[in-house]
Model the fold of this input.
Amino acid sequence: MRHIVSLVGTAILALIGSLTMAAAGGSPSMRMYFVDVEGGQATLIVSPSGESLLIDTGWPGFDGRDADRIVKAVHAAGLKQIDYVLITHYHMDHVGGVPQLAGRIHIGAFVDHGPNLEDSEDARRDYAAYEQVVAKAGRIVVKPGDGLPLKGLTVKVVSGAGETLAKPLPLAGEANSYCATEPKPMADTTENARSLGVLITYGKFRVLDLGDLTKDQELKLACPNNLLGTVDLSVVTHHGYRASNAKALVWAVRPRVAIMDNGSHKGASPDAWETVHGSPGLEDLWQLHYAVEGGKDHNVAEPQIANVEGSTDGNAIVVTAHANGQFEVENTRNRFRKEYKNRE
Done:
């Protein structure tokens, strides 16, 4: 039965790819596959030129479940390899899948913030397993302000290794009125606070992914001035946990759409969910899983949830973006699809 479900999921991903290209009239587009790794992160980004960037690799174990799901998304995108794998930080739900993935598909180069900076046995173990793989592959260490040579897209690093941008990006830098009421957060010494965050631009379309960056670092990007500007799509930070998603940042970047890579029992804290859901200008929030903790008041409508309560089918969310800023979001579980016009 698991094999049948897996084949159906692959077929749906392939169909989504063909439908979105048809909707765009065959014109070049940027595609994003939010692969379900059950509360971790694995986001595959494909540039108009066909180059690929995978942000994080999900969990280890589970008979290679997460690596298999990622490879299926890669094949559904019509690719045979992953050009870059960017590791936001060295926690198991983000870096743990590297050894299994590297054994299944060719990876051009790994991108990270440098050595592990968390004093814990788990982080040291997961980083050591990662190092064994990257020792045999290309490795690029980046810092805030750096970019990646992904043809057709602009990838700007905005945080990493506990540092953030020193100056605003173009068209950003305005004073942030939300900072005045933002509570002072606790300092975080885990790898979460060292997350490698990126802002990805394709024409007028802008995506922000900060990994698991916690509030003390988020506020360096938002206060007293917003160094990032506004975005069209936000990958909800830290799976929607309350330790992240400072209102002063979320509300300042004003995403039109947010996608939460939560699990059924991981992330989607009700207060963080409310911060994202209530963001000014937000048109829609999409979730990879129904959040059991949230109940009916802190989950979006069923058509915009990829995996409903009790489901482990591995359904994905797929985004197709165009250079004019228009984009579409599709749920592979039910083929529910919404279009978002470009900002005027």
In short: The chain has one domain: 2-319. The domain at 2-319 is CATH 3.60.15.10 (Metallo-beta-lactamase; Chain A).
